[in-house]
Design a protein that fits this description.
The chain is α+β, with helices and mostly antiparallel strands and about 500 residues long. It has 11 helices and 19 strands. Helix 5 packs antiparallel against helix 6 and helix 6 runs antiparallel to helix 7. It is flat, with a radius of gyration of 33 Å.
Length: about 500
Amino acid sequence: MSPALSAAHVGELVRELAPLLVGGTVREAAALPPRDLLLVLEDPAWGGIRRLRLSAAADGPRLHLQLGRVHRHEGSTGPFFERAAKELAGATLRAIEQVRGDRLALLRFDTDQGRRGLVAELVGRHANLVLVDGSERVLEWLVEPKQKQGDARPPRLARGEPHVPPPGRAPDDPGPSVTEAFEAPEDAPRLAELAPLSWRVENALGGAAEEAERHRASKQLRERLERKLHGARRSLVGLEARERAANEAERVRQDGELLKASMHELRRGLEHVDLEDWFEPGGGPRRIALDPKRSPQENVEKVFDRYHKLLRSLESLDEERARLEERAAVLESALAELASEAEPEDVERRAVAAGVLEPLDRERGKRVQKAAPRLPYRLFRTRSGAEVLVGRSARDNDELSIRIARGNDLWLHTADAPGSHVVLRVGKGTEPGDEDVLDAAHLAIHFSPLRGTPRADVHVARRKHLHKPKGAPAGLVTLSGGRTRRVRVEPERLARLLGDDRDAR
């Protein structure tokens, strides 16, 4: 396994790459999801193009000249890639700098919109790419920063706020150099002479990251194919049950004839009727179930409707069975290909073309890597359907309580502990129901350090009684009204509110 880039390695690479790339114009900022960006630069003095790869891959964050082949991404990307392409296309690269001697590289650009910057935070599994403006205020980031629930500190990355580098500092011991840490690959292309350190990094870390991504893609595809195959097999079992039921169609018709001939014995409210069975040798009674809510005529029609439905089902069974058996065979073949180390992309493409697998973006019900705009709150609903908004962080609490909440909305917060601000939406001229307030209070307790306590006090006030003192820290507000409510936590109520939101649990 290749070593990760150290702070000293980043410094060496920056010093090697800057003379080769500064002054070049960005022809394209190409997305290589999930975590790589390829800057294609050109300059008449070079007699061609040069490609710089910036990767926030958890298995190998890095920057280097891209000399090897790259598989172009087709399809949707995401907010960061779209913003980077828009902001950097046509920009001139003015500088590549190492930030505070650490595993951070800053690329400075001149664009038609002014100065822009791209920060490569090459800090192991928490690597990220951050687009900033000329004042180094955050415009967009690639990897959504995580913040622990209940952490009152402002998030490290926030749009419109100054970029804050990740915590930590470069070690005093620089460790081995790039030449010492990474072996020189054989069969170097001509351009490798321009950036020999970059070439070592591309081969060592790039190859490892690509193999890790291939393994991830193969595992994900295998799970998708297995789900589809399981579904096809279950459908085949269901067909067998349908066939058994359809083979009883004649008996259903006979029951209909018995009911039709005995209409005078039927009346609304009966759950069954016992009739002499003319269709069986020797006769004998036959009990036929009825719908007590239906009239005699409606019960007879219901039986004949079922008879005709069973006949139609029998007619299509052979065709459906053949289709499902073919589908299962194609899926089994795709899984066998994947097990034989075939490229996941090729296997997926053939499966999609065969119609047994949907493209990943359609399967997810959204565009691949296309994240919805981040909201400063989580949304929950009470049993009555009222909306409850829960702030995600201290800064988000301010956004929710001060800018989003309306004057008549109800604001809730734990009385004896920090935590998320909670807003219960209240319509104009209406009063919140007590059950809705109790639901919102449960969420206020859950999204605080008091999570798990059996009882807690919760402040309840109208939004119009809420004030933000000038210069107060993020998340701090004052109240000029309201009351405190003692709440006994009901686990069943909380489970209903949280539903399938695993991140909230």
